[in-house]
Amino acid sequence: MMRVSGSCWSWLKKQVGLVCVAGLLAVLLLYLSTRSTYRESFLMKDQTSHAVRQLTNKTFAGLEQDDPALVSYVRQLIIPPSTKAYNLTNPTKVHFSQYDQSAFAENTFINGMGGGFFLEMGALDGEDKSNTLYFEKYRGWSGLLIEPDPKLFRTLSGLNRKAYSINAAVSLTNVSALATFRPARGEGRIWENSKKGITVQCFPLYTMLLALTVRQIDFFSLDIEGHEMKVMKALPWEKVKVRVMCIEMNHVPGGVKAVIEFVESRGYTFLGTRKIDAWFGLRELLQETMDLDKYLQQHKIDTLRLKLLSQTYTQYQTSGGLVAEWTAL
């Protein structure tokens, strides 16, 4: 049998002791690390649940447009694009706009660009007079359809559009609210300080864009029967880019002159008027899809702009609705 000297036993005892101490330290460090991770996870979960509080249709009003809770609430209300086949009334139709707005936008400014994002305020039933269905169906775009009329929205939902949609109105300020909406096919609108109509939820436009994490709109169709300027003034333009926008102007207080002056002040180029719409675009994006300077020169846009800015504007109510007139000075 092999004998071990006293000095060897002493050395072995020291080694075993060191191993035991190292093991205990490793276990202690693992425990502390696990405890710390658990605590951080718990705190993060608690902070998240506190920051993104749950809103209801009774508690959503009065919040700023970038409030995380409001953004989360709106995200829950937005219906995602349908995965079903289209259920259109006119499945073979190409352009659905009232005045060929989609054809004009495509042939003049968009020129075949695929994969864009549109925004249509005043989407109606999603097909009749739609300014965006063409881009969705034939160019593969996504987008957001906003329509406050519940009856029209039910029809829209049944079309299986490949775009996000929400049954709500856009707030006329940068705060969420309840408002009175008077349905009238094609001419429904928000009526301030009135109780005649139906109550609808209103969300700032920027809140809806945040809910979808959208920072760029390639075609913006704005038609809300006279409140266009209020919606535009509430939008933080420095946080959103728009390639081309079509703004119905015939019901806007101040007329086309007011629209041109405001939109240009936000850094956009006036592209002309057509029927009841004024058109604008962001130069840096338009230059990707067209020769902007050639278009402006060819169509004498600057001459038209100066003419429109030199006109007086009157607006009056008739039995047929609000009428606008422009008279040259």
Topology:
Blueprint: H1 6-51, H2 68-77, H3 101-110, E1 117-121, H4 133-139, E2 142-146, H5 150-157, E3 164-166, E4 169-170, E5 177-182, E6 189-191, E7 198-203, H6 205-211, E8 216-222, H7 228-234, E9 241-248, H8 255-265, E10 269-274, E11 277-281, H9 283-286, H10 292-298, H11 301-309, E12 311-318, E13 321-328
Parallel strand pairs: 1-2, 1-8, 2-3, 4-7, 8-9
Antiparallel strand pairs: 5-6, 5-7, 9-11, 10-11, 12-13
Features of this protein?
329 residues; alpha/beta; four-stranded mixed β-sheet; 38% helix; 22% strand; disordered C terminus
Radius of gyration: 30 Å
- Total number of strands: 13
Q: How far is the first residue's CA from the last residue's CA?
A: 123 Å
Label the overall shape.
globular
- Structural category is alpha/beta
Low-pLDDT segments, ≥5 res: 34-50, 315-329
Mean pLDDT over the full residue set: 83
Query: Beta-strand level of the residues, as a percent range?
Result: 15-25%
Instruction: Give the spatial strand order of the biggest sheet.
Output: 3-2-1-8-9-11-10
> Tally the helices: what do you get?
11
Helicity, as a percent range: 25-40%
Order of helical and strand elements: HHHEHEHEEEEEHEHEHEEHHHEE
